[in-house]
Each structure stands twice: as C-alpha cells, then as structure tokens.
Amino acid sequence: MAFEYIEITDPLFVQNLGKCEEDDYLMVRAKQYSHVPIKIPNWVPQAHCFSVDFKNHEKDLLEAEVYPDDVWVISYPKSGTTWVQEMVWCICNDLNFEAARANSLQSRFPFLEASSFAPVSFNTYEYARNTPRPRFIKTHLPVSMLPKRYWEVKPKTIHIRRNPKSVAVSYFFHSERFFYKCSMDTFLRSFVREHQFFSPYHAHVIEYHELQGCDNILHLTYEEMKRYLPAVVRKVCEFFGKSYSKPELELLYQHLSFKSIRDNPTLNREKPNDPIKTTPFIRKGETDGWKHELTPEQIHMLDEWTKERVPNPEHRKLFE
C-alpha cells in the first residue's frame, strides 16, 4: 500500500463523533515520497485528515495523469481558491468572460480529489482525466500526496495561502453550510488538533514553500490580492506569458471584484430552491474579519497553535 491509514483516537474527536455530523475521518500518511523535491532535511510527511472514502480512490490518485499544458491551482481549503481559479482561468483564456459566465467553475476547473473525501455522484479523477486539454486542475493535496506524474511533468501551478485565523473562520462557515452541526468553538478545537479535511494546515503551507527546483510554481497570498489586485494580476500574466491592454485589464478587475464574484452563479454555488441557505459559499471576502468573529480566547488559541506548530522564525513569516 502507498498510504498508511491511522485511526483517530483523540478524546475530543471521539466525543464529537456523530454529534457534529462529520464523516468517518482518519489520518492518511504517504509512504512513498522520495520523489518529492523538498529542502527540509530528513523530511518525513505528516499524516493528513481524510474520510474513509480515501481508501476507495488510492489507485485513482496514484495513477492520475498530468500533462505539460495543465494549469494547476493548489491551496489549503478556504485560502482564496475560488478567486484565484477564476483569475487564472480568465487570464489563460484570453479574458473570455462570456465563456466564464456560461460554465460553472467546477466544470472548467475540476477538483481532482473530491471523490477521495466527499460522497460525490461521479468519479472526479475520471472527470479530470476526460477534461479537454489544456486542463485546469484544482487540488488541496499536500506535496506528499500529489500524483507522482506531477513531479515528472511540473505543470504551471499557482499556490495560494491565507492567514490561519481567516482560514479557520472561513472553514467553519463553509463546513456549517454543508454538514457541520456543532459550534464554532468546537470546530476550532478540532481544527487545531488537525482533524478537519486536508489538515495539518501549517505543514501544507510550509512544504510547498520548501520545494526546490520548482519554478513552475508561483506563490500568492489572499492578503496581497485584497491589498492590490492589479499587481497580482500583472504577476500572474507574466507567469503565463500573457499580455493585455489597460482597458482589458480594467474589465478583468471588475470581473474579479468581490461583488462580482459573490453575485456570479457560476462561482457561488447558489442554486434556485437550494435548501442549504445557512451560509453563502462566498461569504465576506475580508482579510481581517476574524477580529470581529473570534473571541480573545479563540484568537489566543489559534496564535499559540501557530507558535507550537511553526518553531522556525522564517517559516512563521508565512502565517503573518
């Protein structure tokens, strides 16, 4: 087997099992990782949180094809992924806003491993495999779990990261929208124990920034996109060898504005008569909303979590 499967015995997890209506989680550790070009001395990947569905798609993941003309967007969940996907797709498709508005982001940008952690109605690996090239692929996988072909081909990739407190709040509301039935405080205590899909969070971010010889990856942050989007757009255009006029770029900025993203049905996953109305998929789009939504005790807990998980001062800069 290419992966080790570890039962979660943490008392808080066991106590809340079923109560919060989460899936049957387990921790999954990659056993084959010598091909990952990482600079961390004596690196051994950590186990990451998935559901038992992961076991049913181990072969799909290991044998996933990767092509030189692929474009990948990689992130830990709730780090600004949807925003970056739309920006990348438009830049790489000659600012074809008409086509972007006519087709859902999920169809234009398949979520590679969704079948590995969620009960979807089709095999997402197969869907990605059959998507016409050039393909646009979304993934939240850590470096240790990317298909081996990824490292052989090294397709153009954007990696996006976000402040951990913003991620924590956004992840709670996202989970509450789809299935989660417990309080934010319960979610946060589970989150810092790394018992939410794709955790551990810090390891994901650090490992992508410790890769070597990977000039195929462009690193962005949610915060820099919020501060001054045009600078990020210029950087991404240069990365993909694209050039647009000032009027064309102004249209792109409008298309990528928070209001436009929030109101765009191809992005926000809102459907007529949708019974899930508790929390919108695209919620506030703020960089410091956590200051108003977390208690001082919760902020302290998340800050201490980062200090504990990231002892290296240089790495800690990634989470400021």
Structure summary:
With 320 residues, the protein is α/β, with parallel strands linked by helices. The chain contains 18 helices and seven strands. The protein has a single domain (3-317), classed as Rossmann fold.
Terminal CA distance reads 38 Å
The fold-level CATH name is Rossmann fold
Widest beta sheet: strand line-up: 5-4-6-7
Radius of gyration: 19 Å
**Number of helices, where a helix is a run of at least 4 consecutive DSSP H or I residues:** 18
CATH class: Alpha Beta
> Percent of residues in beta strands?
5-15%
H/E topology pattern: EHEEHEHHHHEHEHHHEHHHHHHHH
Structure, explained:
- The protein is α/β, with parallel strands linked by helices and 320 residues long.
- The chain has a single domain (3-317), classed as Rossmann fold (3-Layer(aba) Sandwich), CATH 3.40.50.
- Helices cover 43% and strands 11% of the residues.
- The protein contains 18 helices and seven strands.
- The protein has helices at residues 11-16, 58-62, 81-92, 97-102, 105-108, 124-130, 148-153, 164-178, 184-191, 201-209, 222-227, 229-239, 246-255, 258-263, 265-268, 290-293, 296-309, 313-316, and strands at residues 3-6, 25-30, 48-51, 71-75, 136-139, 156-161, 217-221.
- The chain has a four-stranded parallel sheet, with helices on both faces. Strands 1-2-3 form a three-stranded antiparallel sheet, with no helix packed on it.
- Helix 8 (164-178) crosses helix 9 (184-191).
- It is globular, with a radius of gyration of 19 Å.
- It starts with a strand and ends with a helix.
- The relative contact order is 0.16.
- Mean pLDDT is 92; it is low at 271-277.
- GO terms for molecular function: sulfotransferase activity.
- Pfam families: Sulfotransfer_1.
- This is AGAP009553-PA.
- Residues 68-309 form the Sulfotransferase domain.
- Keywords: Transferase.
